[in-house]
Amino acid sequence: MSISIIGAGAFGTALAVALAQNGPVTLWARDADHVREMQKTGRNSQRLAGVALPENVSVTAEIGRALAPDVILLAIPMQQTAGFLEQHRTALAGKLLVSCSKGIDLATLRGPTALIEEICPKATPAILTGPSFAADIARGLPTALTLACANGEAGSALQAQLSTPVLRLYRSTDPKGAELGGALKNVIAIAAGVVIGAGLGDSARAALITRGFAEMTRLAERFGGKAETLAGLSGLGDLVLTCTSEQSRNFRFGATLGRGEIFDPSITVEGAATAKAVSAIALKHAIEMPIAHMVSALVDQKITVDAAVSALMSRPLKEE
Ligand SMILES: NC(=O)C1=CN([C@@H]2O[C@H](COP(=O)(O)OP(=O)(O)OC[C@H]3O[C@@H](n4cnc5c(N)ncnc54)[C@H](OP(=O)(O)O)[C@@H]3O)[C@@H](O)[C@H]2O)C=CC1
Ligand SMILES: O=C(CO)COP(=O)(O)O
Description:
globular
């Protein structure tokens, strides 16, 4: 059975390369010139340099072709997802829609599977998330991810269809916990980057990862996510990866903030908008999320790094 991937960014392209081991893959990009270039060169040098596209990846700008398979992976940035779903709502009815995005929609404060449920109620939502840099997946390095779907039968079928010898998927029926873990870890990764960029040291980063994980779990549990999901690949696993690697765009963005420099605005940094969404959710539901509030304020340049650190360090002393 063929699958299609919406979005020929770094991650969509890497997944196409990996999943081509299992059968034909259709990779859709919105820009016809970009598609022609990929068809001609057999590469996506704009988004994932140095990687050849296997022969059974067919790249297209025709949305009708891309929306024909029963299983469709959505690999576009979170803030563009609602618009895409709305535009193609009718064609998406009855499909298995696997979001590969990590974030919270700022306009509706919903995560990817909640957005799919809201906009495409006749589709079955799932999420593929966990520690995985596109470049690693494309090189065929061993990777383990979470495939979460509330419908256990559909989740099992997807797990089998999307696993490869080097891409090991663990199944979960907790999409809420999985999507919140993936969204929130980006916010904490920005904070970790700030800590390193500002020269505050590895001890401070370890403290921040740990307290950030407590925030992630607190918020996810409030919305029905399970603590054990947060402790798995989609939460702790991805948090560790993103807070400790220079490959992470969220971490690098934070490090740039910490150094007081300007980050290239064309680079996708999901945690920036998501920090604002998380801060709004925390205020609305009275959930204690001090790190997320600080990241949101830093992103909006409403606070300096020094002021953010002293605000976090001067909070009342409490039990762990
Ligand atoms: N890169 C990684 O290592 C990983 C990324 N992810 C997640 O995958 C998602 C995508 O990230 P990534 O691939 O890295 O991002 P990139 O910045 O590499 O690419 C984004 C892609 O989305 C396309 N796009 C943007 N807006 C729209 C739209 N409205 N309609 C259709 N296509 C659109 C862009 O097209 P165009 O070129 O025309 O602008 C581009 O191809 C994010 O949520 C990210 O967190 C998850 C795990 C790993
Ligand atoms: O989600 C990722 C790794 O799991 C990619 O992280 P960045 O978006 O920060 O590069």
